[in-house]
Amino acid sequence: MLGNFTYCNPTKLYFGKDALCGLNEELPKYGKRVLLVYGGGSIKKNGIYDKVVKILKDNKKEIYEDAGVMPNPTTEKLKEGIERARKAKADLILAVGGGSVCDYAKAVSVSVHCKDDAWDKYYIRFEEPSCKIIPVGCVLTMVGTGSEMNGGSVITNHEQKLKIGHVFGENVFPKFSCLNPEFTYTLPKYQMIAGIYDIMSHVLEQYFSGEDDNTSDYISEGLLRSLIHSANIAVENPTDYEARSNIMWTATWALNTLVAKGKATDWMVHMLGQSVGAHTDATHGMTLSAVSMPYYRFILPYGTAKFARFAVNVWGVKPDGKTEKKIAEEGLNEMEKWMKKIGLVMNITELGATADMLEGIVESTLIMDGGYKVLDKNEIREILKASY
Amino acid sequence: MLGNFTYCNPTKLYFGKDALCGLNEELPKYGKRVLLVYGGGSIKKNGIYDKVVKILKDNKKEIYEDAGVMPNPTTEKLKEGIERARKAKADLILAVGGGSVCDYAKAVSVSVHCKDDAWDKYYIRFEEPSCKIIPVGCVLTMVGTGSEMNGGSVITNHEQKLKIGHVFGENVFPKFSCLNPEFTYTLPKYQMIAGIYDIMSHVLEQYFSGEDDNTSDYISEGLLRSLIHSANIAVENPTDYEARSNIMWTATWALNTLVAKGKATDWMVHMLGQSVGAHTDATHGMTLSAVSMPYYRFILPYGTAKFARFAVNVWGVKPDGKTEKKIAEEGLNEMEKWMKKIGLVMNITELGATADMLEGIVESTLIMDGGYKVLDKNEIREILKASY
After folding, report:
1. What DSSP designation does B111 have?
2. Which of B15, B22, B242 sits opposite A213 (nearest CB)?
3. Which residues does chain A have within 8 Å of residue B137's beta carbon, measured at their own beta carbons?
4. What ipTM was predicted for this assembly?
């Protein structure tokens, strides 16, 4: 736990089969004008929309809608959402959906009263909001991003071929989130598995950084072991409540700032994956899985001790009589086997990346400096080539 | 993660060697009248008092003092503190000390504007505060109770021979806490080790409950492994910053409601220990260690699978070819060996409990129903006898 840090996470969580009842606790705290933000309409098919609208009406709220938030929300959609929120004079933005919907709601929340261009201010210049922020609440229907309890907000600019996440401070965190594991049952298996890897990647990208002795690493190992255990059950039986609830809870704690405390944090897998996403519009979690093995095998020599610890503590590799390098490699082999077993995409070709996109993806990949090796553009190219 | 629950922990933490700088962020949020609460004066010897007072004065605060909070704060002291806080018209209570000082500050905070008797209302009838609550901030100088980020407040009534903890809701949590691991260096080794076991007991009493599959258990195993690892270092070298900082952080997360989520939670070791404490005034953590082995060996048959998991995942017991019972027992044997090694008190005789106190301790022990076995008074007597 070297260094100084602060920790504050004020988001209130309502968890379980009755999580939506939390809305009755929270809605009275805000004005009557609610902007209801959601995606492609699956919440209308599975009944969640009706349940939420009923509670809003029971609480005498005026409902304004902003539907059609896409999986990788775009700058165009953001502009439209800002206009809608302004017209609605929203007192509260209620995001009903997965991480993209929550991310988007936060982007709108900091932009409604902002005079600058939101993309330039928050996603290019990484400035903090100085204007009034509209409070955001979430009803989660998909698991993975942790957006329900953090300040993360990823927006894609197709024109500039950039997919960039801003991690806002605690004043932008959702005020509350309702987490009902049953709401995630109807999600297609592909999306569920992608979410599972998104969670894993969040933990790994914080875990694989730093060389100090850190409690966060022990908590991370616990989260990883719980995730692997529950994922194995959920892949076989997606309506296993315990497994889905453990995955949901793990997702929240994988990226709500806790396991980053005292850590440098890496995020190169996300940078690689987001660049692939900006060029292919592929599912976020799958872009991460597709680049992970080439990336981790590349950086292993720079963090061998940690990869060996990972092998033993997370994957149960027996260390006896083996070199640290051998143990570390066996851990990654076990992880790769598991990834294939649960059905993750293991190359970017399958996600629509073509050879002629390579240079563009290299170009769009932001370089981070918190991991075991700061990559240069040539190394990024080699890793991406190995991901095809 | 069975069942419904809510999670909200709004305490802001400032962690690290510069943690006290957090006061400059926080103090401007409150009025000018600050009640400075502390214990026996060790903070005057080690310079922490002067540092805090300087920051208070720099922030133009009027300082009112309430010193002399004892290790197990009493109802008499609480009455005195309420009077002092009323006279001071305190806008903020700043607790500088260990868990007892923080616990006491919370007790004062909910009692200043309360017309009922605080002991009867909060510690006998377990009612929630309905009056205005004075905000509390903490500067931690001793690690163990987790009081810096929870609603826990333990008060001892010597007349009634009762030591009772009320776990208040999030409106009573400290608004902020400053955690500088270096502030714990001057603590006597006996107190440090007692604090380490207090942390361990907090995790164990949440872990050893329930039979469902729960992410909290995986996080708990991570916390336990981190604690054991860092405790071994700190016992050899109490000024190892990394070890002390990991212990401090683990203490906070061991009892800030996180690892209780989805769990029944037990707390019988605390009930036994607190009863011993009410009769002997012994150090809290040592009362827990002294009763733990007899208690855990008694309940092992009712939760064998969990004790076996504990043995393997926390103590590294090799399970191959052994019965579940054998694995479970080996885990407790390993734990006992470790407890003796770091210097914990293993019987209540050493804490001043005499044979004639037995019936009184049995009588004062509250019975909880969340663990693997609900004890009756005869079983409590047997466990206490085995603790002599």
Report:
1. T
2. B242
3. none
4. 0.95
Cβ neighbours of B8 (radius 10 Å): 16
Residue B236's φ and ψ, nearest 5 degrees, are: -75, -40
Structural Rg of chain A based on CA atoms = 20
Identify which of B332, B266, B331, B330 has the alpha carbon closest to the alpha carbon of residue B293: B332
Which of B34, B13, B67, B66 has its CA nearest to residue B134?
A: B34
pLDDT the model gives residue A90: 97
Pinpoint the alpha helices (H) of B73-114.
75-88, 99-109
Write the residue in A214, A218, A248 that is nearest to B223 by C-beta: A218
Q: What is the pLDDT of residues A151-194, one digit of tens each?
A: 999 999 999 989 899 999 999 999 999 999 999 998 999 999 99
Three-state SS at A69? coil
Q: What is the pLDDT of residue A1?
A: 63
- Residue-wise pLDDT for A295-348, tens only, equals 999 999 999 999 999 999 999 999 999 999 999 999 999 999 999 999 999 999
Show the tokens assigned to A95: 């995001």
- Give whole-number Cα distances, B331 to A122, B209, B318, B327, in Å: 52, 17, 10, 6
CA distances from A74 to A90, A145, A281, A356, B347 (A): 21, 17, 11, 23, 65
Q: What is the CA radius of gyration of chain B?
A: 20
Backbone φ, ψ for residue A225 (5° rounding): -65, -40
| Phi/psi of residue B368, nearest 5 degrees | -105, 160
> What are the structure tokens assigned to B111, written together?
């009692």
pTM: 0.96
Q: Helices (DSSP H) in A255-375: which residue ranges?
A: 268-280, 284-299, 304-315, 324-342, 358-364
Q: Report residue A95: phi and psi, to 5°.
A: -90, 125
Burial A127-147 (b: 16+ CB within 10 A, else e): eebeeebbbbbbbbbbbbbbb
Strand intervals (E) in chain B? 5-15, 33-38, 62-66, 92-97, 136-140, 152-157, 162-167, 176-179
- Distance, in Å, from the CA atom of B82 to the CA atom of B80, rounded to the nearest integer, reads 6
Cross-strand bridge partners of residue B38: B96
CA distance A117 to chain B (A): 30
pLDDT attached to residue A11: 98
Quote the CA–CA distance of B310 and B327 in Å, as a whole number: 9
Q: Å from B75 to nearest chain A CA?
A: 33
Q: Tell me the β-bridge partners of A14.
A: A178, B6
- pLDDT tens sequence across B281-333: 999 999 999 999 999 999 999 999 999 999 999 999 999 999 999 999 999 99
Q: Angle A109-A287-A161 (CA atoms, 0-180°, nearest 5)?
A: 60
| pLDDT value for B41 | 86
Three-class secondary structure of residue A367 per DSSP: coil
Q: How many CA atoms are closer than 13 Å to the CA of B110, on its beta-carbon side?
A: 29
Banded pLDDT at A81 (limits 50, 70, 90): very high
- DSSP calls for A104-150: HHHHHHTTTT--S-HIIIIIIS-PPP-S----EEEEE-S-SS-GGGS
Tell which of B180, B218, B223 to mutate to test the A interface (max A CBs under 10 Å).
B218
Cα of first residue to Cα of last residue in chain A, in angstroms, is 38
Which of A219, A224, A240, A245 best probes binding to B when mutated, by most B CB atoms within 10 angstroms? A219
B8: nearest CA in chain A?
A12
Set of chain B residues whose Cβ sits within 8 Å of the Cβ of A250: 215
Q: Which residues contact B335 (CB under 8 A, 6 or more apart)?
A: B293, B296, B315
- The span from the CA of B25 to the CA of A150, in Å, is 21
Domains of chain B: residue spans and CATH: 12-183 (3.40.50.1970), 189-387 (1.20.1090.10)
Dihedral, CA of residue B298, residue B304, residue B307 and residue B313, to nearest 10: 170
